[in-house]
Amino acid sequence: MKSELEPTKGNKPAFIVEIVILIGLIIGVAFLPINTIAQMIVFLGVLALGAKRLFFNKKYPEYQFQKLTKHSMFFPLISVFFVLLLNVFYDAMQGNNILSFFMIEMKEGALYGRIIDILNRGSEAAILAIGMTLVVSSSAGTDISVGSVMSLAGSLCCMLLAGFGVTHVRSADALQMPILVGVIAGIAIAGVVGLFNGFLVAKMKIQPMVATLIFFTAGRAIGLLLTNNKMVYILLDEFKWFGLGRVWVFPSATVIAAVCIAIMLLILKFTSLGTYVQSVGINSKASRIAGINSVAIILLCYVICGLFAGVAGIVATSRIYSADSNNIGLNLELDAILAVALGGNSLGGGRFNLAGSIIGAYTIQAITTTMYALGVAKAQAPVYKAIIVILIVVVQSQTVKAYFAHRKAQKENSLMVAGRS
Amino acid sequence: MKKKNINNHTILLLITVALFIVLYLGGCLMYGEKGFTKLQVFLDILRNNAGLICIACGMTCVMLTGGIDISVGSLVAMDCMILAVGMEYSHYSPSLLVPFVLVIGVLFGLVQGFLIGYLEIQPFIVTMAGMFFARGMTAMICTDQVNITVENWFKSLAGLKIYMPFELGVVINKRGVHMVPFVDVPVIIALVMVILVFLLLRYTRVGRSMYAVGGSQQSAALMGLNVKRTKMITYVLSSLLCSIGGICYCMNTMCGTTTQALGLEMKAISSSVIGGTLLTGGVGNVFGSFIGVLINGTITSIVSFNGDLTRLGGTVPNVVSAFLLFVFIMLQAIFAKLRERKK
Predict the structure, then answer these.
(1) Based on the structure, what is the number of domains in chain B?
(2) How many Cβ pairs within 8 Å bridge chains A and B?
(3) Has residue B184 got a pLDDT over 70?
(4) Which parts of chain A sit beneath pLDDT 70?
(5) What is the extent of the structural domain holding B111?
(6) In Å, how far are A80, A180, B98, B115, B256 from A313, measured between CA atoms?
(7) How far apart are CA A116 and CA A103, in angstroms?
(8) In chain A, what are the domain boundaries?
(9) Band (B9; pLDDT cuts 50, 70, 90)
């Protein structure tokens, strides 16, 4: 009797084997010698049958769809899934291989492919999303200064490397200091701005958005003053490495993002920072009474956010090997906030899900890349982005969820009443 | 005898007004010989910021309820583009286009207000989506810069100069011509809007409800106010005022581009904060926001009179404005702490 109600532990390996078989089948579909539209139809059929067998079957009770929807990673992963599906449709319509989105090629010792491109270009947003997640979680507000701070960090770095008023650095002799010192200075200034923001939010109890509005306005402007209102070019391969180079076969920006993520995950794993941050976010007064220095925790979150903004700024600056204060990190703060929201985090603070935010950041990049592939002009892309955002937040909205739960309860109620009479 | 109660927020407003006077007098002393003392300089500050004044009024209302509306800059760009393309390419009459733009504003506000008020989604996210949407729509309508060259009442209204009565502040220039200071139609519209919104907030049921909702949503609900509807009306009002501001903006620039009014939302927010509106809601005044816009305008004006700063580009006003924002935020925080201690 008991074994029927409770899932047996032997189910998990079987589940994994079935998933592997499903993936194998899907890859097999891509090599069927029929035209791509037909391939797509077969693909969808396999996917639907597989999903039905795995998630809508009593066979694996712990992986039931109803249960999965409650999981914190469900939302980010389902958005990724839909973006990938959209790409499969697009490739089928174009007559490409339906899985060409996932194809990775080796060219001149580096990896190429659309996935790699997304992982590369999404680096800045992913790095920002790490810090933003902590800020949102601890202070229930957003740091809107990160985009400006990115530009400030890049400008300071280039200014220090080139010297004030110099616009082009073409050889290593012209450098005023080692590249690494400039880079560290750029990241440090971003940390200082984070400290300033954190002081205003944690100590002075100012709303995060207003506090960070100061550097949202000033960051870019100070960057322009530092570079004397000109573009500063650093035309050195060592400097270009941060954004355009590669580590073994991977783009270096991706590697930098991965390192940042790894550092943060290690910190969260081996210290109790994560728990403290969440507890401060849920109730800062109660946390203080429980012995957590909530001011210091919020301050620390803003400093971390600032430092990561600095790193992202260096990557973005290195990508165009010049300090372009007006355009570096433009609107990237919105992407970072959106990534946090997409990751299933509440913008009201409290519990956070770092992996979700990072997946969210890459999802946004995937959406952007997909839209460009579909032939949407760069300036028009925001319209679709807006529609996607609204759909996501409406689905996530507590009111909508409560409404549907109410409808369902009513339906069941009436069925019960009907059954009784 | 009852002593008149001057609370902290009145002090903030007084500080704002004092700062404006000090800044303006400072400008007069520094650049008096260059002509800063002329009445026309002051009127030009009004003329350049007429659209922003309308938008700041709407932003103040939204901030009073504890929300935020960052879609305004993009909405202005969309309005300008609709007006420009409608007149220039499609040859519609402005009598049709101006009401159309206002209707668009109301619809935009209705959708945002519904999502924020009834579905209880965070205002920042909803209006961010609104910002993306409006900016993208502007590009969908047209990606080029469209200048309005068609002769119609809109253009003649935009070019209309309203001279000061009674020869007030007349300057006689080197050639001996009487230069009578003037304002234009957007300024009049903006001033009317300030007065209307001031009256709305002070004397109507909707306006008082906005203060109540911002002060404490739960208390307002317990008092029997319809919180959701009040919030929705606020966003509709904000978008409507923004559309009016967009029309003023279009009259000033007479063109539509995709990059128009970039960052205007942050200017409006900082003006409101400098004017003493709390972002937590419940406290604020349209008059303060009006002064806030003037302070930002004066800074820009002083910088433009100073040759050295102008050479550094348009960034110096941003730094000064950010510094002022910092000062005001600190003042607000200190007052809030003092009040807590008193309790």
Answers:
(1) 1
(2) 135
(3) yes
(4) 1-10, 419-421
(5) 49-268+279-289
(6) 26, 14, 43, 34, 32
(7) 9
(8) 8-105, 113-393
(9) low
CA atoms within 13 A on the CB side of A152: 27
What phi and psi values does residue B281 have, to the nearest 5 degrees?
Answer: 95, 165
Beta carbons of B115 and A220 less than 8 Å apart: no
Global pTM reads 0.85
Which B residues, 174 through 213, put their C-beta within 8 Å of a C-beta on chain A?
none
ipTM above 0.90, yes or no: no
The reply to whether CATH 1.10.3470 applies to domain A113-393 is yes
- Which two structure tokens, joined as six digits, stand for B208? 């008082």
| Residue of higher predicted confidence among B37 and A279 | A279
Residues paired with A106 in a beta bridge = A111
Residue B2 above 60 pLDDT?
no
Residue B125 domain-assigned (yes or no):
yes
How close is the nearest chain A Cα to the Cα of B296, in Å?
Answer: 13
Q: Answer yes or no: is B194 within a domain.
A: yes
Q: Give B213: exposed, middle or buried? Use CB within 10 Å, 0-12, 13-18, 19+.
A: buried
Rounded-to-integer distance, Cα A104 and Cα A123, Å: 18
At position B322, the amino acid (one-letter code) is A
Burial A209-226 (b: 16+ CB within 10 A, else e): bbbbbbbbbbbbbbbbbb
- A383·B130 Cβ contact <8 A: no
What local confidence, expressed as pLDDT, does residue B56 receive?
Answer: 95
